[in-house]
Amino acid sequence: MKNISLKKLTKAMKKVQDARRFEHTLGVEYTAAALAMCYGCDLVHAQAAGLLHDCAKCLSDEKRLAICERYKISMTASEKRSPFLLHAKVGAYLAGKKYGIKNQDILNAIRNHTTGRPEMSLLEKIIFVADYIEPGRKQAPNLEEIRKLAFTNLDEALLIILEDTLTYLKTSGSDIDPTTEETWRYYYEQSLVSEDVKINSV
Ligand code: DGI
Ligand code: FE
Ligand code: FE
Predict the structure, then answer these.
(1) Three-state secondary structure of the chain
(2) Which of 61, 137, 141, 181 has its CA at a distance of 20 to 30 angstroms from the CA of residue 165?
C-alpha cells in the first residue's frame, strides 16, 4: 500500500480551502491525533481523515451536485434539500480519487463526519467528535464539558454532541437528515445498555 503523506495532504488542503477553513482543518487534525493517542487508534489514519474531512467544503453547492451527477453518487432526499450535507459524501469521493486514499475506514470517517451513523468505527467517532471540539470552535453550548468528556468517555461525548446538534437544528428550523436522528437513537440506546451493565455489576 502506498504511504500516506500528511505533508502533501496539508499542502493540498491549504490550496483548496480558505484561511478559516484551513485553520479548522488543522485543528481537527491535531485533535483527532490526540484522541487517537488516548484510545489507541492509528495516528496517521486519524491525521489523514482529520485533514481531508472537509476537503469538499469550499466547493459551491452546484459543484457538489455536479460531481454527484457526473460520478453517479446517489443523493438522498435530505441531501437534495440541504446540498451542503453532500460535502461529506463528495469529500470521501475526492479523498479516494483525487487525494489517493485507499483505506476504507478513513473514507468512511470522511463520509460520515456530519450526520454520523449507527455502529461507527473508532476512527469515525474520533473524527466526528474532533470536528466538534477542535480549539477553533467557539459557539456550541457545553463545549468545555464535552472537550473533557471526549478524553474520558468517547461514546458519551458523541451522544451529547448529537443531542446538542439535534436541539440546534430543531430550534433553528433546519431540515433534519434521518441519519442524524438514527445515529442519535442508536447511541442513546447503547448508553441505556451500558447503564444497565453498570447497575447489574454493583
Ligand atoms: O463542516 P463543519 O462545519 O466543520 O462541520 P459538519 O460537517 O459537522 O457540519 C456542521 C453543521 O451540520 C452544523 O451546523 C449542524 C449541521 N448538521 C448536522 N446534522 C444535520 C445538519 N444539518 C442539517 N440540515 N441536517 C442534519 O441532519
Ligand atoms: Fe464538515
Ligand atoms: Fe469540519
Answers:
(1) CCCCCHHHHHHHHHHHCCHHHHHHHHHHHHHHHHHHHHHCCCHHHHHHHHHHCCCCCCCCHHHHHHHHHHCCCCCCHHHHHCHHHHHHHHHHHHHHHCCCCCCHHHHHHHHCCCCCCCCCCHHHHHHHHHHHHCCCCCCCCCHHHHHHHHCCCHHHHHHHHHHHHHHHHHHCCCCCCHHHHHHHHHHHHHHHHHHHHHHHCC
(2) 61
